[in-house]
Design goal:
Elements lengths: L1 E8 L5 E10 L16 E4 L7 E4 L6 E6 L6 H6 L2
Antiparallel strand pairs: 1-2, 1-5, 3-4, 4-5
Length: 81
């Protein structure tokens, strides 16, 4: 199973990486966004260990997940399928 860092985006747009890690979403590198629902809104990250985050909402305050493993470049993994 894949592991994900948990991120929070505030109403001001600030992004915070929490200390929480979640596990799940097996076979993530082969899965379409639909299988990650509600985390479908991709945004690049800068200044954090991960390079992308998948948000539950496209705008406003929300929670997101970022892959911790070799699937960290999620967009490139899925463009090959």
């Amino acid at each position: 199973m894949s592991q994900y860092a948990v991120y929070i985006r505030t109403k001001e747009g600030d992004i915070e990486r929490t200390k929480n890690v979640i596990c799940g979403f097996p076979h993530i590198s082969q899965a379409p966004y639909g299988s990650l629902a509600p985390y479908i809104h991709e945004e690049p990250l800068e200044g954090f260990p991960e390079n992308i985050v998948l948000w539950a909402r496209s705008i406003g305050p929300t929670v997101g997940i970022a892959p911790l493993d070799a699937c960290a470049n999620f967009r490139d993994q899925n463009s090959a399928t």
